[in-house]
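hiii so um. not sure if this is the right channel but i have a protein structure encoded as tokens and i wanna go backwards to a sequence. like what aa goes where. can anyone help
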């Protein structure tokens, strides 16, 4: 068994004996910690010679001498000679200097653990001298921290400026949030949540995380955008790590740009984490690629809750250019008529995907001429993504007339 201990080596002498690859691998962490590193070796690999040429280490090109231990706090012995290794370990022991004896963990007074650093957290794993096992465990813990499965949340002890992260949560399914977004959510003190974000991630938060619901429904915005902006800044000024958890991507018809500008105008540090936009991912959930060789080589995304005639002037009118309407259910009939008037054929395939990526996902297909009647017949509701173009016919849900 070993006693786990963290060493602060900044400004302290560390002696590395040996110039091979193992010795070189030890250098970077020592230098990152600010150690004053002396390397003793008659020959050295390129990483060490480069560090010496840059003045980052003191490389003395010769064999080890007992006097080299003078003033050292820690010795890493990687000479490649069993006799020299034994001598260094014995002399370091006599001088009460901790010595890592490379290649002989059983006789080593200290071990170098497998280390991972994530933000301000350092993970170090020792496994009784089994480096491969230590590395595997280290990688597993680091991956869990990176993904947010293990929280990196820091409990505040003093007031100070907080931060805001605008996180795109993707289209409802918790598995589609990015690793960065999941990690920031696990670190949050306050979550300002949309109704279309990954709700299951919210229920898994710690009980002391404050969740502020600001979700909007079509035609009903109980918390106006100006108030959402104010909440983000207010909570950050209280010193909280704030995550604005949004559905899809913050910048795709999500008003993320307004929230970012408001935070910056009030001096609040803000980070934007892109998300899997519903404009592409929800059609994919219905088996519809927004582009496909020989079928469609481009696509456009527009809002469907405004008069579509004001938006389609620069969009190619052919059905080989995919058109994706977000928030377009309420004006579907007028939008379909406008697209036909604007040059698209009445027979152009159309799909409506409700509740994309949820268990309740439902797909309705038709044409520009028939889709509004079909939507009324099936009582189609938001949230839904509407896809217009020949790519709809590639979906297994397509039912040609």
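sure thing!! here u go:
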């Amino acid at each position: 068994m070993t006693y786990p201990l963290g060493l602060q080596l900044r400004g302290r002498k560390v002696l590395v004996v040996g110039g091979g690859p193992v010795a070189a691998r030890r250098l970077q962490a020592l230098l990152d910690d600010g150690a004053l590193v002396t390397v003793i070796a008659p020959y050295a690999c390129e990483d060490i010679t480069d560090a010496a040429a840059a003045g980052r280490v003191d490389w003395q090109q010769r064999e080890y001498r007992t006097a080299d231990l003078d003033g050292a706090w820690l010795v890493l012995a990687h000479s490649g000679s069993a006799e020299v290794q034994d001598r260094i370990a014995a002399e370091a022991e006599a001088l009460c200097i901790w010595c890592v004896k490379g290649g002989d963990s059983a006789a080593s007074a200290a071990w170098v653990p497998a280390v991972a650093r994530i933000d301000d957290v350092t993970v170090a794993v020792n496994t009784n001298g089994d480096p491969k096992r230590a590395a595997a465990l280290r990688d597993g813990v680091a991956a869990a921290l990176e993904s947010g499965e293990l929280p990196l949340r820091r409990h505040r002890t003093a007031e100070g400026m907080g931060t805001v992260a605008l996180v795109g949560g993707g289209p409802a399914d918790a598995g589609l949030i990015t690793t960065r977004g999941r990690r920031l959510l696990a670190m949050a003190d306050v979550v300002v949540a949309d109704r279309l974000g990954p709700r299951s991630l919210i229920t898994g938060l710690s009980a002391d995380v404050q969740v502020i619901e600001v979700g909007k429904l079509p035609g009903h915005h109980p918390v106006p955008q100006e108030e959402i902006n104010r909440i983000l800044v207010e909570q950050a000024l209280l010193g909280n790590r704030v995550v604005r958890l949004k559905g899809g991507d913050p910048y795709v018809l999500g008003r993320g740009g307004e929230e970012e500008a408001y935070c910056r105008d009030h001096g609040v540090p803000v980070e934007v984490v892109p998300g899997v936009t519903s404009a592409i991912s929800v059609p994919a959930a219905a088996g519809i690629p927004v582009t496909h060789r020989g079928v469609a080589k481009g696509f456009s995304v527009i809002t469907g809750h405004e008069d579509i005639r004001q938006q389609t002037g620069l969009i190619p009118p052919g059905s080989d250019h995919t058109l994706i309407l977000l928030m377009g259910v309420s004006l579907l009939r007028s939008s379909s008529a406008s697209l036909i008037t604007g040059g698209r054929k009445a027979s152009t395939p159309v799909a409506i995907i409700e509740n994309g990526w949820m268990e309740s996902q439902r797909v309705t297909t038709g044409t520009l001429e028939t889709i509004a009647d079909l939507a009324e017949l099936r009582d189609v509701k938001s949230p839904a993504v509407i896809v217009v173009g020949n790519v709809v016919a590639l979906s297994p849900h397509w039912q040609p007339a």
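oh and Residues 162 and 305 are 35 Å apart (CA to CA).
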